[in-house]
Amino acid sequence: MKKELFILYLLILAIFYSCDNSVDYNADVKIYDIYPCWSPDGSKIFFAGGGLIGVNGIYSVDLITFETELITDKPVDFDISPDGEKIVYTFGGNIYIKNMSAKSDPIALTNTGNNFHPSWSNSGDWIAFDSNNDSPNGMHFVWKMRIDGSEKKRIIYTPTVGEVRQPSWFPDGTRLAVLCYVNYSAGDIGIIDTSGNLITLTTNDSNHDINPKVSNDGNYVVFERNENRGQVCIIKTDGTDLKILLNNYSRYPNWSNDDNQIVYTNALEGCLWVINRNGLFSYKILY
C-alpha cells in the first residue's frame, strides 16, 4: 500500500509540474519533500511531501526533536499565517484555509478557475495567489483576496506579454516578487506592486527562474534556476549581486526567519537540507 501511495504521489507531482510550467521532471531527480518554509517562531520547518514517511501531505518537523506532525493529507503548495495558527494551501485547483490542527476542517476560499501558489501577507490580512479565473485564454495571473475569500481582485493582467505567477509578498505589503513570462520567454523573476504595475525585472535572461521568495528584510529574493537539475540563487531586489548558492540538484529554496539560512530540496536525495546564506555550511533535516 505504501508503494502504491508513493507512485500516486509522483504522478500528482508530474501533473502539477506540467500545469505549472515549472521545471522538467527528470528520471535522475528525486523529489519527496517540497515547498519548505519556517514557522513564524523559527522552531519548525513545514513542507509538503512525506513520501519517506509513507503518508503524503503537509508536515511540520521540529528542529530540536525532529518530530513530525501531519497538518493535512494534501501534498501541495501552501503558506503559513504570520501568527502560525493557520495554513492556506492548494488542492484540486482551489485554495483552502484551515487551522493548524490536522483534525480541523478546511474552508474553500476559491471555487472557480485553477488557483495555485497562495502567499500570506505579513499583515495577515491578504492572500496572494495565481489563477486563470476570468482569463479567456486560460493564462495565469496574480490575484489577491482577504483571508475569508472576500474582495478577490486580479492584481495584474498582461495577456499580450505573458503570464505572471507564484507571488511572494514583500514585508511592506505593497509589492510582490513574481514569476514573469515576459514575451512568452523563459521565466524571469519580477516585482509588481499591488496596483498591478511591473516595477522591475530582477532577472532578465535566457535562464528559466522560478519559485521566488522575498527575504524577511525585503532586500533579496531567493529563487530556483532551471540549470543542472536546479540551482539555488539569491539576488538583490534591484537586480544586482546575483549569487549562485547551490550549483546543482537544488530546488524550492526559502528563507529562515533571520535570513541567515535557506532551506531547500536536495534533488539527489529528495529531502530537505539547510544551507547558510554564505554557502559555507549545510545540513540535512532529519525526520
Molecular structure report:
The chain has one domain: TolB, C-terminal domain (Neuraminidase). 7% of the residues lie in helices and 43% in strands. It is built from 1 helix and 24 strands.
Q: Any idea what the radius of gyration is?
A: 17 Å
How many distinct beta strands? 24
Strand content: 35-45%
- Gross CATH architecture: 6 Propeller
Helix count from the secondary structure assignment: 1
| Shape category | globular
Keywords:
43% strand; disordered N terminus; globular; mainly beta; Neuraminidase; 1 helix; 4-stranded antiparallel sheet; 287 residues; single chain; 24 strands
Describe the structure concisely.
By secondary structure, the protein is mainly beta. Helices cover 7% and strands 43% of the residues.
Task: Explain the layout of strands and helices.
Blueprint (H helix, E strand, L loop, with lengths): L1 H19 L13 E5 L5 E6 L7 E6 L5 E5 L5 E3 L5 E6 L2 E6 L7 E2 L6 E6 L5 E6 L9 E6 L6 E2 L9 E6 L5 E6 L7 E6 L4 E4 L7 E6 L5 E6 L5 E6 L6 E4 L3 E6 L5 E6 L4 E6 L5 E3 L3
Antiparallel strand pairs: 1-2, 2-3, 3-4, 5-6, 6-7, 7-8, 9-10, 10-11, 11-12, 13-14, 14-15, 15-16, 17-18, 18-19, 19-20, 21-22, 22-23, 23-24
